[in-house]
Amino acid sequence: MTKVAVLTSGGDSPGMNAAIRAVVRTGIYYGMEMFGIMRGYNGMLEDDIFPMNSRSVANIIQRGGTILKTARSKEFFTYEGRQKAVANLEKRGINGVVVIGGDGSFTGALKLSTEFNIPCIGLPGTIDKDLYGTDFTIGFDTAVNTAVEAIDKIRDTADAHDRLFIVEVMGRHAGYIALHSGISTGAENILIPEAETNIEEVIASLSEKEKRKKLVNLIVVAEGDEFGGANQIAKIVKERLPHLDTRVSILGHIQRGGSPSAMDRLIASRMGYHAIESLMEGRHNVMVGVLNNEIAYTPLEIAIREKQSISSDWLRIVKILAS
Ligand code: F6P
Question: In terms of pTM, does the model score above 0.90?
Fold first, then answer.
């Protein structure tokens, strides 16, 4: 009998529960024995592994967070730690693992599969959308929608006071949340790590808009921007344009919570189903992604290593629409 375990690891993201549900129910449909591992690789190490059935995943598709909880495990990144963890899988006869998480989680999965020959399938669960080989990651759409809702509200108060707001969004080293939320809220400037930040250009555009009496301005900054986020940008702007009424807002972990959007529930369900199908077809050590609305498989090492590029079109759109 095939025995498959599922875990969530790294930063949580809305839609992880929908993915767990899809993995567990598809596995059961195909007659597999399913297990849940608590707190990512920590639960594997601490033997916190339990059988799951269809009812274990009832009423979770709409919930944010993850019922399996999550963690970033240091011990798993030692060989001894992994040996201990694998012994806990082996004593139950677990012969497949579905890992829902981001690049750190996939690095762990890769080690499990290459060192101990345990077939692993990765599902991209991260709000950052920083994995190669997929147009969407589970949680990205919800995070962008949360940021958009917050920035729309900030624009109201910015407008009332004729203020400049510099809003920082998450994304770690990637600028996708900033780009998507910035375009969707009509931000005047969007600063992301994938494009060089020309601070002189930012200052010039703010001065030029001031001359045109365009007093409401929004700058959306990715936390991974080369200047180090919203506070650093605000410091420079305040020095150079002291007469502007400038405020900073850092959206923070609000972007990781909340009920997943329909889009995130949908891709999580599709990906979860295909994770089990992949194991049955003998695919190992791949990430299940969606490219051009088709399911696509990318070797885990490529999903982690390769960088996605942001087309220059996107940045042109920002410039033209913010004029
Ligand atoms: O990877 C998801 C993410 O939310 C990043 O956008 C952010 O940089 C990081 O996790 C925050 O991590 P923590 O919750 O450990 O502070």
Answer: yes
